[in-house]
Amino acid sequence: MKKRITSINSSQMRNFTLEKNVILATFFTLIILLGSTSLLHADYYHDTDITSDETWLATDNTHYVTANISVDDGVHLTIESGCIVDISANFTINGTLTANGYGVNGRIYIDGYLALSGVDSGSSLYEVQFTSGVVSVNSCSAAVTLGFWDSFFYSDLVIDNSYARIEDCDFKSGATIEIDNNSSPIIDGCNFEVGTNCKITISNYSWPTINDCSVNGGISVSEGSHPFIYDSDFFTDGTNVNVNSSSSPTFTRCRFMGGGGGSYGASIVNAHSAVFDSCEFSYNNYGIYMSLRYSLFPAQKTITFSP
Questions:
Q1: Which of 54, 68, 153, 224 is placed for a possible disulfide with 90 were both Cys, Cβ 3.0 to 4.6 Å?
Q2: What is the DSSP secondary structure assignment for residue 62, as one 8-state letter?
Q3: Helix H or strand E segment including 244
Q4: How many CA atoms lie within 13 A of 242 on its CB side?
């Protein structure tokens, strides 16, 4: 018995070819889309020292620093706008770090430490959100421009034996600035969140300049430090200003406000001197408490007020 052969006309052949092409096109489109998605979410792990100039890209998000690594002296690391960086170890910048224009999409998560140490040509961090941990600035001189601009700190900022600029930054959720060991940063236009004990501590012969800040957790000056503080407001339910250990701060056109039970506008104990020039004290139960006993410089103990 002969097999019956069914003929296929040209119209049917065209339809068959078209369907095949549609299926193939759909298949390859899915492959491309899946590949693109994986590229968009290609997490990048950094676990070795950075020894040559490098740029981290937002398309590689998220960037994980999972081991103690450093950027070598003379090396420039650029973190692109929109990068998400998760630091769970100690990340030390001996060279230069530039992070510019994070906006609302960029984050730096710090569970370990980000240390800017002895930066040779200056680091600039703009619009960065530090979400936890500690940011440390160590042994950076005034000869370079190291600074933080328009950034958000949910982590503590520690400045040790260094110069730095901190401008128009917000400190939230208990974040503090600790200035220690002969440091001289400039802090300008910063806000320390209400009700979360965000504060400034100055110690060990440091002499920062603080201007136009709103500090809602108070300020502490100790160990021979001599800060210059201008046009700033201090609000707290405790004592706004604590000065001790032979320190000599100068406050100019500042306001000291708030105060719950037992609070002082300023507590000055065992200080070398203190100057309050055109300052305002209000809403404090006790105003200013002063005790200059046990000073190392009894002939120079002065508290100066001017209207």
A1: 68
A2: P
A3: strand 241-244
A4: 16
Q: How far apart are CA 299 and CA 98, in angstroms?
A: 49
Full pLDDT tens readout for the chain, 307 residues: 454 445 555 555 555 455 555 555 555 555 554 444 444 456 889 999 999 999 998 888 889 999 999 999 889 998 888 888 888 888 888 888 888 655 445 678 777 788 887 666 578 888 888 888 889 888 877 666 688 998 889 989 999 998 899 999 999 988 999 999 999 999 999 999 876 778 899 999 999 999 999 998 889 999 999 999 999 998 877 778 889 888 999 999 998 887 555 567 788 887 778 888 888 877 655 666 555 443 334 444 455 555 5
Cα distances from 120 to residues 97, 145, 164, 237, 295, in angstroms, run 10, 9, 13, 42, 40
**CB pairs under 8 A, 24+ apart, for 212-215?**
212/188, 213/187, 213/188, 213/189, 214/190
Before 96, cis peptide (omega within 30)? no
Contacts of 244 (CB under 8 A, 6+ apart): 221, 222, 267, 268, 269, 270, 271
Bridge partners of residue 277, in order along the sequence: 252, 306
